[in-house]
Amino acid sequence: MHLTNLFKIALRAINTNKLRSFLTMLGIIIGVAAVIAMIAIGEGSKQSIQSNIASMGSNMISIHPGADRRAGGVRQDASAMETLKLKDYELLKAEAKFIKAISPTVSSSGQCIFGNNNTPSSMYGVSIGYLDIRQLKVEEGDMFTEEDIRTSAKVCVIGKTVADNLFTKGEDPVGRVIRFKSIPFRVVGVLKSKGYNTFGMDQDNLILAPYTTVMKRIMAITYLNNISVSALTEEHTEQAIEELTTLLRQSHKLREGIDEDNFNIHSQKEMMEMMNSTADVMTTLLLCVACISLIVGGIGIMNIMYVSVTERTKEIGLRMSVGARGIDILAQFLIEAILLSITGGIIGVVVGCLISNAVESIAQWPVSIQPWSIMLSFAVCTFTGIFFGWYPAKKAANLDPIEALRYE
Amino acid sequence: MKKTVIELQNVKRDFVVGEEVVHALRGVSFKIHEGEFVTIMGTSGSGKSTLLNQLGCLDTPTSGEYLLDGIPVRKMKRRERAVLRNRKIGFVFQNYNLLAKTTAVENVELPLMYNSSVSARERRERAIKALEAVGLGNRLMHLSNQMSGGQMQRVAIARALVNDPAVILADEATGNLDTRTSFEILVLFQELFAQGRTIIFVTHNPEIAQYSSRNIVLRDGLVKEDVQNTNILSAAEALAALPPIEE
């Protein structure tokens, strides 16, 4: 028997029982809509976390000093370790190929004063590359120059929060002199606001100054707190980390296979993976709930198909008497079940997308509808149709035509 | 000598009910030739229905052999019998058995839906032709629930004709109809008989035997009587003789 004929027969059966067909589909519709919406919400929050981290620089790598394990002795806090030197920075800057920008970082916290205003802040001694690494932009004025770095000039670029707290009368900060730990710095630029990050940290409460200035004039140190690097692209992060490790080991004269690294390299990628795994757990949980509703929908189909077979026993008997084989009857009911579940699936996808959009516009949650979730829903629907349609269809196919014809 | 369409050779059919064995058919033998109009009669429990199921290839004999159009049926599988029914037999039931909420033409198309060698176009053409043959050429698109009993039975007969079967099996085909409509259906059967169709009409109504060419009477699972009817009455005349419908 032609498959097209079977489709026609199944379509006719669905058409003659529109309301019941719709009610049968309802379970699948709700299930699929739930799956689509849940995945969209889960992925949306995941993407918002990712973009949050990306705004800090997704290809950012930071090198922290580690314990010098060769000599034993007292283990120190990372900030007190002195294993990262300027020459490391200069070597990496000259030799590393997989990096886009690099900046040494030394930081010091303290009170910042202008006129009769003061505010606590942190001063970061960095190079010009830091702007690129942390995705910062200078809104007013300019960044300090290489010349400023060379001459350890007392200039700085301040964050929005610092600017707002110090210049309360609406003065233009650029060109003004502020004091940090009693040392006067001339403000050359103000950074564009980045707001708070995922962890609730104010990303605008900072002061950038040439690293040479901070090292010599404020902290009086010769080592670096850390080195910030950005890889060429996010994909190059791994290669960049490997390269940086090799170069640093050479620079620190660590013996192959004997000495452990006396520095730590972290990438934002690790951070992102951690955050993603949290989001993934949430998505998985939501998905489980959605899947259960899909199964319930499937059982609904089975239920109705079962009733439908009983109700249409006489029709089955007739079909058999005019020459339908068991397999024809099986195929008819199976196709009917699959059509029901797929049609339900299509409606479910539409409803799911609508719900996702509603969530986005009403609850202001970030959502992202995933094409794969739609594909998955379709696959599951077809499977549900076959799986839950099989038993009733088999029952129909095994009916005895004589009994079926006599059934009242 | 005309071609033998149906040949029963000592057909027995036993049913096991609980611990007892019920002998529904105890050895039935007869031949039906092409172009015969045979009525099979018998009281309730005579084995009529069982015989009809055998003839319709819905069931197989416990012993003996049944040849339909020369094809032995007894050892056939379910699937093979389904195909045989599709090509060789046209059923007409007492309660019409039309698909609900389905048009006449779609109902008639049904047997051909299960025959993949018939294209959709040919199927439609043959269905229309069959409906025209039973006088429903103007009701092709009527739904089954919009028709009278007589019309529904005509659709059922068209459905039985559409696959050009070797034999038409009618099971109490006039049982649900009033006298006038019954005669109208009988007229139709006689027309088909005149065209050379082989018809087997199972009934418990002795009147109908007068309009057929041969009458087989069953009792207790055996053929009690098998007589040729030399004086076939015309159903058309009987219909004309009925008192006119009072308005």
Short description:
The complex is a heterodimer of chains A (408) and B (247). Chain A is α+β, with helices and mostly antiparallel strands and 408 residues long. Chain A has helices at 3-16, 18-55, 86-95, 129-133, 146-150, 160-166, 211-219, 237-251, 268-311, 313-321, 326-363, 371-397, 401-406, and strands at residues 60-65, 99-114, 117-126, 138-141, 155-158, 177-180, 183-191, 207-210, 226-231, 263-267.
Overview of the molecule:
The complex is a heterodimer of chains A (408) and B (247). Chain A has 408 residues and is an alpha+beta fold. Chain A has helices at 3-16, 18-55, 86-95, 129-133, 146-150, 160-166, 211-219, 237-251, 268-311, 313-321, 326-363, 371-397, 401-406, and strands at 60-65, 99-114, 117-126, 138-141, 155-158, 177-180, 183-191, 207-210, 226-231, 263-267. In chain A, strand 6 and strand 7 (183-191) form a beta hairpin. In chain A, helix 1 (3-16) packs across helix 11, helix 3 (86-95) packs across helix 8 (237-251) and helix 9 (268-311) packs parallel to helix 12 (371-397). The two termini of chain A are 28 Å apart. The mean pLDDT of chain A is 84. Chain B is globular, with a radius of gyration of 18 Å. Chain B has a single domain, classed as Rossmann fold (3-Layer(aba) Sandwich). The mean pLDDT of chain B is 91. Chain B has 247 residues and is an alpha/beta fold. Chain B contains seven helices and ten strands. In chain B, helix 3 (104-113) packs across helix 4, helix 3 packs parallel to helix 5 and helix 5 runs parallel beside helix 6. In chain B, the strands form two sheets. A six-stranded mixed beta sheet of chain B has the order 6-7-8-3-9-10.
